[in-house]
């Protein structure tokens, strides 16, 4: 592995004009994106390969990164998705027996431009003060560009608000993972940036998991005779995903049980008739406290989102789009953000966080069981209604 002291110079430039010098890490060149920070102390490989980080330059607040290297088994998807990567102290050696390559080499192989040696605490405090902003990492020849030119390039980059990134991360064709154990039926998963851990958890609950491209239609989904539907996590602005909202309304109209995670939570909120909005700096990490209002239990959760649902935190309200009563089921305790929605008159619920959380925590993994039980209860009720109707 190349020593930090001998690598090329690099610079992180934020759209407010602030500059943070460092050393090149990963691929050389220029990368642009929304600069965000992730607070997880572990799980950097899962973060990097989570498709919902597409379009974002991720800063790790943990100071020492890379000591366990990278391996194919722990990847959440087929590649690294972050737009860029910012670390303070990259490990000079890899010291885990499962490692197959260094983090530096893996970033370079996937063309991810990063920067190391940055005062990540200073950058995090700046984002906490003024909010997430566009930024650029310039290394190699690009590091020598005039400072004003670098800032111009950053300020001309697209903002995350209004961006639809689903097509960039979704599968190109349907992929099927067979059920494990007692089979319940076919589950239609819309891939908006799904993680492998999600597919594994759903298959383990007895579903034949059919992962659909984000361009799927209601007809495509109903053609597999699904027992339920699922929307995954993913990147981008939910307000820019009108087609996915209309698809979800078609799924709800077909009376299919539904479960959504993260981006899927925001799209369920929109399908029910609520708005969404951009958070100042988002929630990213594996230590976010969430209150389950039904049980009073506080869960420590894994999260990655920059947008949230705008819905009343207390009481029940009628769905503006006619889907009956709705309540906010989970609340973030750091800033009172909607962390879950439950429909009371149709079989549908969603959460803003990641219950699959391959790097942990696993407090919310029971939600996959809750989804399975909701589907089996719905199937049983329909079977009983059919029998009574035949008498």
Automatic annotation (TrEMBL):
Keywords, alphabetical: Amino-acid biosynthesis, Arginine biosynthesis, ATP-binding, Glutamine amidotransferase, Ligase, Nucleotide-binding, Pyrimidine biosynthesis
GO molecular function, one term: carbamoyl-phosphate synthase (glutamine-hydrolyzing) activity
PROSITE patterns: GATASE_TYPE_1 (PS51273)
EC number assigned by the record: 6.3.5.5
Residue ranges of the region described as CPSase: 1-182
Protein name (database record): Carbamoyl phosphate synthase small chain
Organism of provenance: Microbacterium aquimaris
Domain Carbamoyl-phosphate synthase small subunit N-terminal residue range list: 8-138
């Amino acid at each position: 592995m190349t020593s930090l002291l001998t690598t090329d110079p690099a610079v992180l430039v934020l759209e407010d004009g602030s500059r943070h010098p460092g050393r090149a890490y990963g691929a050389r060149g220029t990368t642009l994106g929304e600069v965000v920070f992730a607070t997880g102390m572990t799980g950097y490989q899962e973060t990097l390969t989570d498709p919902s980080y597409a379009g974002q330059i991720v800063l790790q607040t943990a100071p020492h990164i890379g000591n366990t290297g990278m391996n194919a088994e722990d990847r959440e998807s087929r590649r690294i998705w972050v737009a860029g990567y910012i670390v303070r102290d990259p490990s000079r050696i890899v010291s885990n027996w499962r490692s197959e390559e260094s983090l530096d080499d893996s970033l370079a192989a996937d063309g991810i431009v990063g920067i190391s040696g940055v005062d990540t605490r200073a950058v995090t405090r700046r984002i906490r003060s003024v909010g997430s902003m566009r930024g650029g990492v310039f290394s190699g020849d690009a590091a020598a560009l005039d400072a004003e030119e670098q800032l111009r390039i950053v300020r001309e980059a697209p903002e995350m608000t209004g961006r639809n990134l689903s097509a960039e991360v979704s599968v190109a064709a349907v992929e099927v993972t067979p059920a494990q154990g007692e089979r319940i039926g076919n589950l239609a998963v819309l891939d908006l940036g799904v993680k492998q851990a999600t597919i594994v958890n759903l298959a383990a609950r007895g579903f034949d998991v059919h992962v659909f491209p984000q361009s799927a239609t209601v007809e495509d989904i109903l053609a597999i005779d699904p027992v339920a539907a699922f929307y995954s996590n993913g990147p981008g602005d939910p307000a820019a995903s009108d087609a996915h909202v209309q698809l979800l309304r078609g799924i709800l109209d077909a009376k299919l049980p539904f479960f959504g995670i993260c981006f899927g939570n925001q799209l369920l909120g929109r399908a029910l008739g609520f708005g969404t909005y951009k958070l100042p700096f988002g929630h990213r990490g594996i230590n976010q406290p969430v209150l389950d209002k039904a049980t009073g239990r506080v869960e420590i959760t894994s999260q990655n989102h920059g947008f949230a649902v705008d819905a009343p935190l207390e009481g029940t309200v009628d769905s503006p789009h006619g889907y009956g009563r709705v309540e906010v089921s989970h609340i973030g305790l750091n800033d009172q953000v909607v962390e879950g929605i439950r429909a009371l008159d149709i079989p549908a619920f969603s959460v803003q966080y990641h219950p699959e959380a391959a790097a942990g925590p696993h407090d919310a993994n029971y939600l996959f069981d809750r989804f399975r039980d909701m589907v089996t209860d719905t199937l049983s009720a329909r079977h009983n209604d059919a029998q009574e109707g035949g008498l």
